[in-house]
Amino acid sequence: MADNKVKKSFATYLLILLLIVVAVFLIILVVMLFSPFKNILGFQYMLYNMDMNSADYRYTKTTGDELIDFSTIDEINVNCSYANVSVSRIIDTDVDAIGITNKCKGFARSSDNTDFNLEIYFEDAEKKVLNIEVQEPEGFLFFDKTIEIALLIPAKSDYALENTRLNINTNSGNIYIGNTHKLSENENETGFKSELKVNSLELRTNEGDIYLHSFIDSEFNDVYLRSNSGSIIMQKDIYYVSQSFETYTNDGDINLTKVSYNGSKTVDENIILYINNGEFSADTLSGNVGLNILNGYFNLNTLEGYITSNNSVEQMESASITIDYANGDVSLPFVNKSSVSIGGLANQKQAYIKATSGSINIGRIDGYGHIETTSGDIKVSAISGDINLKSTSGNIDLVYDSDSITSKIGLSSTTGDIDLKVRNNFLFVAYFYDTNNMLIQDLSNINIEFHASGFGNPFFTTTVDNPDGSDLTFTSNGHINISYI
């Protein structure tokens, strides 16, 4: 009995001690909440309430008290850490301004820098380069982390950055360019303009997203968009890029509509895509595309120009490439384990693709095709041009829907099966070689569906009236099948 009383007393004292500790903690917490930025026991509570809708947080001058006029500025640089950055037209201002919103609140250690610092200054004496630098508060527990830097352009302004380059750099913040909706249904009456006309864009964020909204102009000098793990989303077609268009992601998403290059460079790659392990999708790319991809996904509806990975820094690994239609050459020499699917190539365009275990599928070739794999399968449909398909152990499937070819068709697979379909009026001479480049004597692995048996090597479908057939060359130790479409 005495032991039970001692245990109950100890439990009671422990409970009282715990309640005292909780009460002290709550008291300290209340003191911190009502005394922001006060250091208590090595911790502090931060609280900001800055809103760009207030005139107090719209800066029309630099921190050195110099007037800001975007129309006289060639370049604007914005540098921050986790703040969001936006550029848009607004109705409720008559002058160019830089708006700041800071709603940060949360807890920080005493060693954390909870100050919010903003510097706006001209880099040069001519006032052509404007720098905006923000240092955001540090903390370990945020209830709200909202900070926004906004370049505010009056809706009635005749100037909308058409001669200005925007360089925006943030680590985890999002970047928004342009308005999402029309400022006025009748702009002629109100005088409000909704679109931005930016000369050049260089937008970088590590973890954040980049948005090019609907109401931006379609002409740019050059565009560079980079988000390592975030998304790049373009809601407006870009019809005119005079220098270059480049996007970069490591494992994020890139969603574009239409991008058209209209500059003077006709040979160099002018649309450069770094997809790496991310996902890319676009409606139309009009220009010469340089593709850099590792294990990512590339989906394109229409290509107007050529696409190449010849100059890629790293070879592909296990990517997936899908192009519905290409009005240009395709050169992918380092596909490796990746799969490539092309719906069709335009007349007289060429495809050069080399893979290891990746599969290659081309729905329509109307030019020259050279495709080579190690163990991957090859499936091609052609209507003209010379075709050369080669695999070590993969299967080859070719449909040749034409009456004749320019020179010859070459199909080679060491151990894989070869299947060829031709028109019934297609005249040809077929040569069957083994992998030692010797004419095959034992034709038991060769099946010609429209010729039952007794054919020789070479095999002729020519006639006395038309002795000139096209050359078909087969090289294989596997099975060969020829049939009509």
Derived structural class: mainly beta
Average per-residue pLDDT, rounded, comes to: 89
What is the CA-atom radius of gyration, in angstroms? Answer: 33 Å
Oligomer: single chain
Main pleated sheet: 37 strands, mixed
Strand segment count: 40
Helix content: under 10%
Number of helices: 2
Protein described:
The chain is mainly β and 485 residues long. The chain has a 37-stranded mixed β-sheet that branches. Strands 1-6-9 form a three-stranded antiparallel β-sheet, with no helix packed on it. The longest helix is centred in the first third of the chain and has 33 residues, at 2-34. It is elongated.
Characteristic key phrases:
485 residues, mainly beta, 2 helices, three-stranded antiparallel β-sheet, 37-stranded mixed β-sheet, elongated, 8% helix
